[in-house]
Design brief:
single chain, 4-stranded antiparallel sheet, ATP binding, binds adenosine-5'-triphosphate, translocase
């Protein structure tokens, strides 16, 4: 089903999640989430641990656990992909994912070059010299200039930051209109975190980004707007500058305090 155009230009948003509910083993964990990401917008989905960020991201990516019950709708570029696995979505509704653990996302036994070749062949039909040029170009885009060495390396021969750069290159390889990055900097040291955030900003210049994080400071460095989740419900959706200066919900205020203190957020209602 094609949704009605959302923007004034008459184009469907890159992502429209409406009334999303997710239940696992009969337990409702996401309750009617609504969020929208326009064409080249970068939006943070933010909340404390357990607030439902990853389940929402998984519903968008089509990677919910088997048996999860989904309600409401997920539209990517106007295409209804609710409950559809990635392989059952048309190319126009492709979503690229970057996870929090690059070591888990990459095949440890296969050289980076071969892993990068897969989406370039499958989604863009590249072969031979064109494939080689695109691989080197993608690695340069993510700041890996020693492309010959990186392409020949297995993931274990790279640093954690280099592995995450490879994952971002993989996400860009399919030219999906929407990138969903679920806590992609969590496993990295502070300096590498800042580099990966800068890279994501640059790499998603022409792409929509849904950036999942518990850290409002990281979100502010990358995104213009944030959707705040609490116990599976959206409690606030506003420009990040407004969230920082004038949080409307207690949970947002807790995230602001945590960002200012450089610490992890304490869920609202916690007694310690
Ligand atoms: N496969 C699953 N089976 C059962 N419960 C789950 C499953 N995945 C998540 N949950 C539960 O759903 C709730 C939301 O989890 P989710 O992973 O979406 O939170 P999150 O905001 O991404 O947290 P974190 O920041 O810690 O990753 C939590 O209570 C979690 O325990």
């Amino acid at each position: 089903m094609i949704v009605a155009p959302a923007s004034s230009q008459g184009r469907s948003p890159a992502l429209l999640v409406d009334g999303l509910t997710v239940a696992v083993s009969g337990r409702r964990l996401v309750h009617g989430v609504r969020l929208e990401v326009a064409g080249t917008e970068r939006v943070a989905l933010i909340g404390a641990s357990g607030s439902g960020k990853s389940l929402t991201a998984a519903a968008v990516l089509g990677t919910l656990p088997a048996g999860a019950e989904v309600g409401g709708s997920v539209h990517v570029a106007g295409v209804d992909v609710t409950g559809r696995a990635p392989a059952r979505r048309p190319p126009a509704a492709r979503v690229a994912g970057v996870g929090q653990d690059p070591a888990a996302a990459l095949n440890p036994l296969v050289a980076v070059g071969a892993q990068l070749a897969l989406p370039l062949r499958a989604h863009r039909g590249l072969r031979g010299a064109a494939l080689d040029r695109e691989r080197a170009g993608l690695l340069a885009t993510v700041g890996l200039t020693d492309s010959r060495r990186v392409l020949a390396s297995t993931p274990g021969e790279l640093s954690g930051g280099q592995r995450q750069r490879v994952c971002i290159a993989l996400a860009l390889a399919s030219r999906a209109g929407l990138v969903v990055a679920d806590e992609p900097t969590t496993a990295l040291d502070l300096v590498t975190q800042a580099q990966v955030v800068a890279l994501l900003r640059e790499a998603t210049r022409d792409t929509a980004l849904l950036f999942i994080t518990h850290d409002l400071a990281v979100a502010a460095a990358l995104c213009d707007r944030a959707v705040v989740l609490h116990e599976g419900t959206v409690v606030e959706d506003a420009p990040i500058t407004r969230l920082l200066s004038d949080p409307q919900h207690e949970q947002t205020a807790a995230l602001v305090r945590a960002a200012r203190a450089g610490a992890l957020p304490t869920p609202v209602g916690a007694t310690s």
